[in-house]
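Worked example

This section walks through a single chain of length 372. The input is the sequence exactly as stored; nothing has been trimmed or padded.
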Amino acid sequence: MTARTSVCRWGILGTAGIAAKNWLSIANAENAELAAVASRDAARAEAFINACSASRPVARRPEALGSYADLLARDDIDAVYLPLPTGLRTEWAVRAAEAGKHVLVEKPCAATVADLETILAACRASGVQFMDGVMFRHSRRLEAIRGFLGADEDGIGPIRRIASQFSFCAPEEFHAGNIRMLSQLEPLGALGDLGWYTISVSLWALWPRLPDAVTGRLLVAKAAAGSAALVPVEFSGELFWRGEPEASASFFCSFLIDHQQWVHVSGPRGSVRVDDFVLPYLGNELAFTVSRPQFVLDGCDFRMERHDRLVTIDEYSNSHPSAQETNLFRHFSELVLSGKREDVWPEQALAVQRVMMACVASAHDGSREQAP
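Given that input, the structure is written out below as tokens.
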């Protein structure tokens, strides 16, 4: 679909909480505009628009629709954002692509590799852009981090080890009724919700090399009343790159441990540490630390010296035209308006999905190695 204006016209399928954040992201992107919001109940879509308008008014009020199909049938929609539950996502992502709409989906992108392959095939057939909604991939901080991961004089590389964790301690009401505790809606639980990020950052660091094998371990599984099966609440995994150079990565995700969202990348000449790689801490700068400690032996004096360099990037953490979530919608809208397509986004999303599902298969097979 070729846009007729200099603004990409968006529609949102669903009124999940994350959609309110992206109302603001679309509003902050100068090349994007929200045209309509659809829910299965028009009153719910109207209430969502009213709440978002009160928080962040926009020049053109989006239209509230009581049907996802009605939104896809509109000719004033260029792209759709799908914050629908994972269990419903495949059907509507495919229908959006078949309607000629560009597709931005929340993560995890699908419940299975086959489901995501179905979505991507529909997007290719219709010539539309696909992308997942991982916001940190659109931060300018990643460009700066990349400069320290190589094997050149400034770099720590080649990368030998990556470790990451993303967790939050969910309250009892979350465990009792949140959709992430219902297998029919979010079958991957914490692994899909949080582990997608940790796997994504590891694959980003070593891209385009993909791991040769993975293992997974289901540490805790629970479910809310009415769930068809248990879902992962705490999960850990390992990724292995064989050959030259060898590398490995570990990740941990949990709904039972308080807020942590760090990644640590290590090589022969130091390490890079990011304490807030998913949701940057509040402020107008993003930061990471390049660490090259030195062990000094001076006679009887044995000492470990800290040699850290704090690198900062001028980028707001949230709710600003420079923030990573705005960059996501700005870049996606630019692709739509230009008619260009970037294959790297569906390729990387499929890689994350393959690794994730191989970790699940490993967890169900005594944590034996699996090929993703």
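What to look for: The domain at 8-128 is CATH 3.40.50.720 (Rossmann fold).
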